[in-house]
UniProtKB/TrEMBL annotation, chain A:
CDD domains: ABC_6TM_Rv0194_D1_like (cd18543). InterPro entries: AAA+_ATPase, ABC1_TM_dom, ABC1_TM_sf, ABC_transporter-like_ATP-bd, ABC_transporter-like_CS, P-loop_NTPase, Type_1_exporter. It comes from Arthrobacter bussei. The keyword Nucleotide-binding applies. This is ABC transporter ATP-binding protein. GO terms for cellular component: plasma membrane.
TrEMBL record, chain B:
It comes from Arthrobacter bussei. It comes from the Bacteria. It is found in: Cell membrane. GO terms for cellular component: plasma membrane. It is a multi-pass membrane protein. One of its GO terms (molecular function) is ATP hydrolysis activity. This is ABC transporter ATP-binding protein. Its main location: membrane.
Length: 610, 632
């Protein structure tokens, strides 16, 4: 985050977006000018018409002509007003929408590491209100600023022609105004930045309070949450008031200085007129022009404030747009024609980018080889880096040292699309999207039609998620945040079905059965076993029952692979393994001689309950 | 002094995010009255509905203004007086030229000094008052916003889980962000433009009437077409703004869902599909935005046109009277100039009306949310329970979600204080429902559920929450440090207590290994903390809360065995004298239970000590055997 861009730098960044619509903006500007001129002209025309035509004792015809002229000018004014919008609105909203969608796309591409740092409310405020502000500035603020400034300049020029002495007095007031304007810019930009940031953080707090509603309710902490929120909202209020004060002072000066100058002009002007240095006519004309300029001069205050706010909005937008996506497709991707699925971790190191310098690597030299089709269980104490290791495979994070290869090809040499179709994952905490069961499950699959149906049915079957068929609309039932809420176990099975339906070459499962009861787990495993025979699988396991799925077990400790072997080998030779995986009492350990296969059928009608 | 620039309407603001139309939301349910958020995605409402939501929206606005009446009046007053100070300027100049100049020529400078001094005074006054009302407006608008923000937040916290399970976080966020933004715009610019415009028109009209009452009535006649134009605009913009809120809420919901589920989005290559969907929504949003702007783009020039036509009519009418000799030429000129000026603030009024329409549509949605009644209501006459023991009794309890099928058929159950009860049964058997009833996430549909003999529905909420704590499988972490997250269990806890709680559940070790120990920021969604670690943290929360009744709903599912072992040791200490209800698929927990309830189809089918049940031939015995085998 660079903090202080100059106003021009910031606004200049819009140029590429604005370039195609410049002609329409200019047309809009001209219309605005036209309307502004009409509004100025009508009183003058009236004066001329009446004084010259009517006063001379005109006829009915004169009255009609004069009225016709006035009517025409009036219609023109209204037309210009309408046209200005017509010219500007569509292109401006198009620019806004394009910026919004590219913002969204960019966010989707940015790394998980980026998203770890940024609250979604904060991002939302940039996607919605900042771009709104930007568009409004472009369609209204920018144009009016130009029109207003031109009006003022023209007015001042006329004033100079009328009386240069008086005009000089008027212009002298502009000097302190500009100096103050510069200070105002700095302070107002700062406070408007603060308020926009705080508004975004407030949105993040709202988001968390809703996503964490169960915890807040369970502990009866709604009041504390409310107090925190109130404090934050109060802070935002204070910032807004501060901002308003800054604007109020500026508006005061903008109103005051020209008026003071006019007061001085009045005294000087009358004195000059008395001595005959200025004609009375010129004096009247001077003040008439000054009156016409006063409105625009005052209007400059709010317009400048709007410009500074837009600048902040643009800065905030580009702050995200310029965050670099570090996980990208290779320049010359390698394509795997017939992937087999041999996965090799070679001296893999990983540390989070914001880790402290003295902290060790989370993954500290992982060496592990999975033959094609092999199922490898990953076992280790909570926090030893298992989940981190899994996330490296689909490149949710990039490793910081060593390499991971699939069939001898480095992950980073594959396109992300190819890699992520080769690799499917099921996380421990499942994310379901607001769509149907079908779409959730088939998310990673490219199949269509009957083939898709078959894959869907099979995946639900293997994951023991047949309950989906009994939902109100079967597999078309909407689930996720906006739909039916499922229990933890149900969600986990849908997520597992999703990973299975992707038909990956490499399957990565992060303790995928934790929320299942023993009987269901047993059936899932039976189904999975058949499927896993042809799929390379890395599965985080906390229980012996899950380990039973695997051909081999890799024991992780302190960011390294401490040992690899079969379950019984490791049981026999590793104290740490026994510590991690073995159950609570000796009696149970004594039973370990038995094999893991349990054939009991447990009565089960849970499907009916779903 | 009046604005010379005529095209203020500009791009009407569009803020409007919100509303997500959910197709499945069964609009039929409660007849035609649109209660709460039901139907909130409908754009075309029938007359009665439209009226109902409108007046609901106005009531909300009124209730926001009421506590700030003084500030409101003060703001309007400042606007009016500052307007007057400005109008004085040209009059003083006229005085200066007409009177002070001749006087000066006659050698008397006094008048000039008076004119100059008065002008400066008026200028200072106008400037100070302008600053004053800019501040006053912000103060008024910000305190109303704060009030509304807090109301919405408090209310959403109050609403039952049942509501939250349907109404997405994205919608609540859009209520709290873009809806409020619409109101803010109205407040920020609306009051001053309305007040100053109205005052200006009033003064001008008075002047015109004083000059010539016939022309005055002519000008008033312009109100008729303006009224019809405003009616037309109101009707259409109401729909447009409603729609834009619905569409923008969709946009926000989609956005939030993507960002909170970004891992899955990436892992399953949803980016393209998502982006296409977002493009569509953003384009819809653009379309409705353009529509509402264009409505204003007809309305505002329309008003300008009516004003200008009126001026022409005044000219025709007055011109013939001049010809007829009944009107002075000078008077006609003055009348025409005043007529033209009369219509100048019409722009501002159009802008005001535009933001008013936009805010009203937003408040329709916000008021709908505020109208939602929590299904789990706080008691009217709360019974307090300062020293809960933890006796839980189900008397003929039945439960169903809303009007849905019965999930829990009649249940009688009594859990004595201090008992540790394991709830066993398959996924979906109704264990969690039972737990949620005890935590009063839901209310029983029939019968009574009591804690120490007090019906939960009558128990003071604060006492209930202190007495009963539930730890769920989804261990949500709030942004902040690990210590902050543990302190959710007991906000007033000191560092010592927090550390002790973490130690008791075996979480201290991993926490100390984090970069900054207890002060480590857990990041969004606990990105850096594994699922098991999150469970440990939420366990520590429960430990710290120290309730009389502790419910653990699959709270240890993601723990590895060593952690679970530690937790269980802690648990045994913790459970000493309190009631505990443990739901776990891993039957290891059952070992520490005094009593096991096997739940099936919402019924308790087995009830006994672990030893008894294991020794028997029922479901539990079978489950236990299967579990034993799974340990290998």
């Amino acid at each position: 985050m660079k903090n202080q861009n100059t106003l021009w730098e910031s606004l200049g960044r819009l140029y590429p977006h604005v370039r195609p619509i410049i002609p329409r903006l200019v047309l809009g500007l001209l219309c605005a000018l036209g309307a502004s001129m009409m509004a100025l002209a009508i009183p003058q025309v009236l004066r001329v018409l009446i004084n010259d035509a009517l006063a001379e004792g005109g006829s009915a015809r004169t009255v009609w002509v004069a009225s016709g002229v006035v009517l025409l000018l009036g219609v023109l004014e209204a037309t210009f007003v309408a046209l200005r919008r017509q010219f500007v609105i569509t292109p401006a909203t198009t620019v806004e929408t394009n910026m919004r969608t590219s913002f969204y796309r960019h966010l989707q591409n940015l790394t998980i590491e980026f998203h770890d740092r940024w609250g979604s409310g904060q991002l939302l405020s940039r996607a919605m209100s900042d771009l709104n502000l930007m568009r409004r500035w472009m369609a209204f603020g920018l144009i009016m600023l130009v029109v207003t400034s031109l009006t003022v300049v023209m007015g001042v020029v006329i004033m100079f022609f009328t009386s240069w002495v008086l005009a000089l007095i008027f212009v002298a007031a502009a000097v302190p105004l500009m100096i103050y304007g510069y200070r105002f810019r700095t302070s107002y930009s700062r406070v408007s930045r603060k308020s926009q940031d705080q508004a975004g953080d407030l949105a993040t707090t709202v988001e968390e309070s809703v996503h964490g509603i169960r915890v807040l309710k369970a502990f009866g902490r709604s009041r504390e949450a409310l107090e925190d929120f109130e404090e934050q909202a109060e802070e935002l209020r204070r910032t807004e008031i501060h901002k308003a004060r800054s604007l109020a002072t500026f508006s005061m000066i903008v109103t005051l200085l020209p008026e003071l100058a006019l007061g001085a002009s009045l005294v000087v002007g009358v004195t000059l007129a008395a001595s005959g240095d200025v004609t009375i006519g010129a004096l009247v004309a001077f003040f008439a022009t000054a009156a016409a300029v006063a409105g625009p001069v005052e209007f400059i205050g709010p317009l400048l404030a709007m410009t500074f706010t837009a600048k902040t909005a643009i800065d905030r937008h580009y702050e995200v747009m310029e965050s670099e996506n570090t996980i990208t497709d290779p320049e010359q991707p390698i394509h795997l024609d017939a992937p087999k699925g041999e996965v090799v971790f070679d001296a893999v190191h990983f540390r989070y980018p914001d880790a402290q310098d003295d902290a060790g690597d989370v993954l500290d030299g992982i060496d592990l080889r999975l033959r094609a089709g092999e199922t490898m269980a990953l076992v280790g104490v909570t926090g030893c880096g298992k989940s981190t290791l899994l996330q490296l495979v689909p490149r949710l994070y990039d490793l910081t040292g060593g390499s991971i290869t699939i069939d001898g090809v480095d992950l980073r040499s594959l396109t992300l699309t190819e890699l992520r179709s080769l690799v499917a994952v099921a996380f421990e905490d499942t994310t379901l999207f607001s769509t149907s069961v079908r779409d959730n499950v088939l998310m990673g699959s490219d199949a269509t039609g009957a083939e898709a149906e078959r894959i869907l049915a099979e995946a639900l079957d293997v994951a023991q998620a047949q309950f989906a068929h009994d939902l109100p609309d079967g597999v078309d039932t909407l689930i996720g945040e906006e739909g039916l809420s499922l229990s933890g176990g149900q969600r986990q099975r849908i997520a597992l079905a999703r990973a299975i339906a992707a038909r990956p070459t490499v399957l990565v499962l992060d303790d995928p059965l934790s929320a299942l009861d023993v009987a269901t787990e047993e059936r899932v495993e039976e189904g999975l076993r058949a499927m896993l025979r042809s799929t390379t699988t890395l599965i985080v396991a906390h229980r012996p029952s899950t380990v039973a799925l695997a051909d081999h077990v890799a024991l992780m400790r302190d960011g390294r692979i401490a040992d690899v072997g079969t379950h019984s080998e490791l049981l026999a030779r590793s104290d740490h393994y026994r510590y991690v995986i073995a159950s609570l009492d000796d009696e149970e350990i004594a039973q370990l001689g038995r094999t893991a296969v349990t054939g009991q059928t447990v009565p089960d009608d849970e499907e009916a309950l779903a | 002094m009046s604005r010379t620039t005529t095209t203020p309407g500009g791009a009407p603001r569009d803020r409007r995010p919100r509303r997500t139309p959910k197709a499945q939301e069964t609009p039929a349910e409660s007849g035609s009255t649109s209660a709460g958020v039901l139907n909130e995605d409908d754009v075309l409402l029938d007359r009665a509905q439209s009226k109902a939501v409108r007046s609901r929206s106005f009531r909300l606005l009124g209730s926001l203004i009421r506590p700030n009446r003084r500030q409101f009046i003060w703001t309007v007053l400042l606007v009016v007086v500052s307007q007057a100070a400005r109008v004085a300027g040209p009059a003083i100049i006229a005085f200066g030229i007409d009177r002070a100049l001749p006087a000066l020529i006659d050698g008397d400078p006094l008048m000039l000094w008076v004119a100059g001094g008065t002008y400066l005074l008026a200028a200072v006054l106008a400037a100070v008052l302008t600053a004053g009302y800019v501040r006053a407006t912000a103060q008024l608008s910000q305190s109303m916003l704060l009030d509304l923000r807090v109301r919405v937040f408090r209310h959403t916290q109050r609403l039952s889980l049942e509501f939250h399970e349907k109404y997405t976080s994205g919608r609540i966020i859009s209520r709290q962000t873009s809806d409020l933004e619409a109101l803010r715009e109205l407040l920020d610019s609306g009051i001053s433009s309305l007040a100053s415009g109205a005052i200006f028109m009033l003064f001008t009209a008075a002047t015109i009437f004083a000059l010539d009452w016939r022309t005055g009535f002519l000008i008033l006649a312009a109100a008729v077409p303006m009224f019809f134009l405003a009616r037309w605009y109101q009707k259409h913009s109401q729909i447009a703004y409603r729609e834009s809120r619905v569409v923008s809420a969709k946009l926000i919901v989609h956005f939030i869902e993507t960002m909170t589920g970004i891992r899955a989005v990436k892992a399953f290559r949803r980016e393209t599909v998502n982006a296409e969907r977002y493009d569509e929504l953003a384009e819809d949003y653009r379309t409705v935005t353009v529509r509402s702007i264009n409505l204003n783009g007809v309305f505002q020039p329309g008003l300008v046109l009516i004003g200008n036509v009126t001026v022409a009519v005044v000219l025709v009418f007055g011109g013939f009277r001049v010809l007829g000799g009944s009107l002075e030429v000078g008077a006609l000129l003055a009348l025409l100039l005043y007529s033209k000026r009369f219509f100048q603030p019409v722009d501002q009024m159009a802008m005001f009306y535009n933001s008013f329409q936009s805010a009203a549509a937003a408040l329709e949605k916000v008021s709908g949310l505020l109208e939602e009644v929590p299904t789990v209501r706080p008691p009217k006459n709360p019974v307090s329970l300062p020293d809960p023991r933890g006796d839980i009794d189900f008397h003929d309890v039945q439960f169903r979600y809303g009007n849905g099928p019965v999930v829990l058929p009649t249940l009688d159950l009594s859990i004595r204080a201090g008992q540790t009860v394991a709830l066993v049964g398959q996924t979906g058997a109704g264990k969690s429902t039972l737990a949620k009833l005890i935590a009063r996430f839901y209310d029983v549909s029939e019968g009574r559920l009591t804690l120490d003999g007090v019906d939960l529905r009558e128990l003071a909420p604060a006492d209930l929450r202190r007495a009963v704590v539930m730890v769920t499988q989804e261990a949500f972490l709030f942004s902040g440090s690990v210590a902050d997250n543990i302190a959710v269990g007991k906000p007033e806890a000191g560092r010592e207590e927090i550390i002790a709680a973490a130690r008791a559940v075996g979480a201290e070790e991993f926490i100390l290994e984090l970069p900054e120990g207890f002060d480590t920021d857990v990041n969004k969604r606990g990105g850096r903390v594994s699922a098991g670690q999150r469970q440990l943290i939420s366990f520590a929360r429960a430990f710290l809360a120290d309730p009389a009744v502790l419910i653990l709903d699959e709270a240890t599912s993601s723990l590895d065995i060593p952690s679970e072992r530690l937790v269980q040791e802690g648990l045994q200490k913790l459970l000493g004298n309190r009631t505990a209800l443990i739901i776990a698929h891993r039957l290891s927990t059952v070992a520490i239970a005094d009593r096991v309830l096997v739940v099936h189809d919402g019924r308790v089918v087995e009830d006994g000590t672990p030893a008894d049940l294991i020794g028997g031939t029922g479901r539990f015995a079978t489950l236990h055997a299967a579990w034993k085998d799974s340990l290998v």
